[in-house]
Amino acid sequence: MKLISWNVNGIRAVHRKDLFVPFVEKYKPDILCLQETKAEQYQSEVDLPDYEEYWNSAVKKGYAGTAIFTRVKPESVLLDFPSNIVSKFKLQDSYGDTNKEGRVLALEFEDFFVVTVYTPNSKGDLSRLELRHVAWDKAFLQYMKELEKKKPVIFCGDLNVAHTEDDLANPKANEGEHGFTKEEREGIDAVVKAGFVDSFRIFTKGNGNYSWWSHFAKSRERNVGWRIDYFFVSKALTSSVKKAEILPQVLGSDHCPVTLEIKLQ
Q1: Among this protein's residues, is 118 annotated catalytic?
Q2: Which long-range contacts does 188-195 make (Cβ < 8 Å, 24+ apart)?
Q3: What residues make up the domain containing 182?
Q4: Could you tell me the mean pLDDT of each successive run of 10 residues in the chain, 265 residues long?
Q5: Candidates 51, 54, 118, 210; catalytic one
Q6: What CATH code is carried by the domain that includes residue 118?
Q7: CB under 8 Å, gap of 24 or more: what pairs does 187-192 form?
Q8: Which member of 88, 97, 173, 230 has the greatest number of CB atoms within 10 A?
Q9: Can you give the pLDDT at residue 161?
Q10: Is 80 a catalytic residue?
Q11: How many structural domains is the chain composed of?
């Protein structure tokens, strides 16, 4: 089974460039997880008859949002954080309520959950770092652990953080900047400590592998980027992971897709 995750930075924009459907037809994912769709389902002109579509759009128009296109019909569909987590963590700040921004979408399949997530950006002035560090990261991890009590979890998406120095081209220059603060990196440390595995690092070590590039100074052409898009899997699924890749050749967004291939025993 092939899964792909892609922050499309506006599904309508990628589709207007005639890049979205050809991408799907070429790579043929069984499950396609999207972030930053910036649309509601009725606004999308994408027509993929082989796929069922599940959307979680932000209340605010043209902002954030997630979706999953799947060939395999899910057993259940879960939007946003459950009520027990919402009541436990303060998930809103002066920017708004993150639980109304369409950031989390989970589908339950026979053997596992698939979750697509668009983690809040801490902002250039770090004005959303406290929400991210104190509330969001802890809330999301608790949710993944709750799902995992029922069956293994695959979660993917734009986590808006480079975990280690190998995950961005210029770690020293970006130390303490949003996306590479100690607090954000601790969030991924906690994910790993909880038993989730960064699938890409099963196969590929070292630097030079990135999934997002700034539009500044031809960063993508020079591969001066960040790896902030991930597939994490429950430890129980590790032996089923056969391949995990980044597809920097796929254009249409400032992010590129990342992939996961699994073969269940």
Answers
A1: yes
A2: 188/159, 188/161, 188/163, 189/163, 190/137, 190/138, 190/141, 191/141, 191/144, 191/232, 194/141, 194/144, 194/145, 195/234, 195/235
A3: 2-262
A4: 98 97 98 98 93 97 97 98 96 95 98 98 97 97 98 98 98 97 98 98 98 95 98 97 98 98 88
A5: 118
A6: 3.60.10.10
A7: 187/132, 187/133, 187/137, 187/141, 187/159, 187/161, 188/159, 188/161, 188/163, 189/163, 190/137, 190/138, 190/141, 191/141, 191/144, 191/232
A8: 230
A9: 98
A10: no
A11: 1
Which of 51, 80, 143, 158 is the catalytic position? 158
HEC states along 20-83? HHHHHHHHCCCEEEEECCCCCHHHCCCCCCCCEEEEECCCCCCCCCEEEEECCCCCEEEECCCH
Residue 50, number of CB atoms within 10 A of its CB: 10
Locus of tokens 């975990």? 163
Give the pLDDT score at 168: 98
- 148 token code pair: 């995992």
Q: What is the pLDDT of residue 264?
A: 82
Amino acid at 115: V
List the beta bridge partners of residue 47. none
Tell me the CB-side half-sphere exposure of residue 126, using CA atoms within 13 A: 12
